[in-house]
Amino acid sequence: MIEIEVDNRSGLPVDEAAACEVARRVLAAEGVEAGEMGLAFVGLDESRALKQEHLGIDEATDALAFPLDSLDDLPAGLPRQLGDVVVCPQVVGEEWRAPLVHAVLHLLGYNHGPEMEAREALHR
Is 62 exposed, middle or buried (0-12, 13-18, 19+ CB in 10 A)? Predict the structure, then answer.
C-alpha cells in the first residue's frame, strides 16, 4: 500500500483524491507496491522560496521533488520512504497531472532526459 500524506497550504481548493490516485498509479506502474510519500500543495511564495533554496533559481515553479529512498534496495521490514512532492496550484492550474507525474518520477530516481520523457509518456 502506498501511503500519501497530503498537506494543502496553497489556500486554493485542490482535488487531493485525484492527485493521490495519479501518484499511486505512477508508483504502481513503476513497480512500487508499498511506501510512504508526502504531497504538499503550496502558494507562489513558498514555491519560489523552495526553488531558490534548493535549486538556486528565484522563481515559482510547478512542482518540486525531494526524493529519499528512490528505488534503492532496503533492508527487510523497512517501509520505503519515497520523499516529498510539492505542487503549486497557482502555477500548474488545471494542468497539474503532468507536473505531478514528473515529480513522482524524480522521487524514483529518474533525471531529465530521454528516459524520463519516455516514462512520462507512459503515464499520460
Answer: buried
